[in-house]
Fold:
Amino acid sequence: MNDTARGPGAGAGPAWRAERGFAVLAAFALAAIVAGLVLHAGDHRHAAQLVWGATVVAVGLPLVVSVAATLAHGRMGVDVIALVAMAGALALGETLAGAVVGLMLAGGNALEAVAGRRARRELSALLARAPAVAHRRTGDRLEEVPVDALQIGDVVVVRTGEIVAVDGILVSHAAVLDESALTGESLPATIAQGGMVRSGTANAGSPFDLRASRPAAASAYAAIVRLVRDAQADRAPFVRLADRYAALLLPVTLLAAGGAWALSGDAHRALAVIVVATPCPLILAAPIALVCGVSRAARGGIIVKGAGVIERLGRIRSVLLDKTGTLTLGTPQIERIEVLDGLPEAEVLRAAASLDQLSTHVLAEALVREAHGRALELAFPEDVHEEPGEGIEGVVGGRRVCVGSPDWVRRRGDGALLAPSAGPDRAGELGLAKIAVGVDGRAAGVIVMADRLRPDAAGLITELRHGGVAHVAMVSGDRAAVAESVGESLGLDRVWSERSPQDKLEVVRAVRAQPGLSPVLMVGDGVNDAPALAIADVGIAMGTLGATASSDAADAVITVPSIAAVAEALRIGRRSLGIATQSVLAGMALSFVAMGCAAAGLIPPVAGALLQEGIDVAVILNALRALRA
Structure:
């Protein structure tokens, strides 16, 4: 799939031209066959033979080119069998049988192309939505610019009905967004000023302004486009295996045909055997079913890189889960604010959130979001300095503010902070983050934040086990006490805690090496998970389309805010692989039965061609079942 993804108007795409070409060729063959039958009925048998023979040649010439190209790339397709059948039909004077083979071949290829386009429709829709231009505000002037020209800090105006071109922070008071294309959620979402807006969503309300937080190439929707293009180019291992089966099928078919000829002395039986082996359901059914799985996953907010990933998902035996952002929400919330120096709670939060507007720390966005939610007016900080992983300091409204770990704030000269009034971490809090706030050299307060389990995390483990997964474990960089608590509450088979990115690689390798536990699926959300996502048999990134390292390393990205989508991805993989296998086995069995009947003289060449194409149509229609839930 390539240019067909641009939508109905993309008539110039190679795939669309190929589909149209097959349809025209099939129409020509049908017309010629009907004309030949009319001539034959009018006792012009010689003319009928000429018309049918010309049809075989007309359809066969493009086939010769196609087969030559396939062989040049080191692959043996079943089209070789079709070419042998058509050549044999010409040699034996069975021109009608050869014309029917040509008609069914062209018609089958056209049907396969149509089925493939239908299977890819969700992916095509995602690509068709990708905006090419955006409206950038420069002072009082509004200019239309290519999306790729947008830079961090640019103010972009998104008009009603337009697709958001870049990730950014909402400048306007509020925005109403349709996120259905990314998350599957039909109800629009309302974003408040200062909230994050993802590219690929659609403006379902009044025009609004946003300030770009990433270049267009690093945005969430650009990541989707990359994933979809990877999916288009992918050929599943199952399909590549089908090519190898095709190389074996040709000599088997020729041996069966030769045996029928030798035993009966009738060359027409040999031709009938070859005809009923053309083309092979193995090639038609497998790619359609697996590509249907890719499209079905996209409909559920799971962007998969290709049919090969769907096939591997169908075989998964072990699932390794990261904790933060995967089993937990990954968006810490304020549990409480402990005032230490008489400042009001709201003022402590306002000072910290104002400074954190320029911080890159994961907790900073949560503080800013909470302040906006409380309708606090934030000041723009000045003279800001941040030490990554430690804290940030600057001037807010003329006062020097420090925000960071208690030890770091103490070292900046803001006095000995009082111990938090709360006791040990409470059940369900999965560990607390304590952020100290210093104002003008004095300890102002401690903001206590916690990350909680996703509501559907427990259900995921049950669904995975019911789906045939033998081993479900967690691999986390968090401290042992917190990780073990989570693992015990979810009933996981094993917990690996305090693991670095390199350690996670070793865990994936160790699980894969155990009998019965391979292939392995790794699910994570952060940059530190990228190496493990890349080395696992399948890597799934949770909602990290804007995080280049993790989304690019993964085989699939989940865009919906639900960990249950992991189980859905496995269900889609198992169902699609099952349908592909079922279609192939049933189609091949019917083909071999037909070959036996042809060898026994029960099926003449013309009837054999019609019968085989009926089998092909049946397996294609069966493969399309993978589109349904």
About this structure: The longest strand covers residues 442-450. DSSP finds 22 helices and 22 strands in the chain.
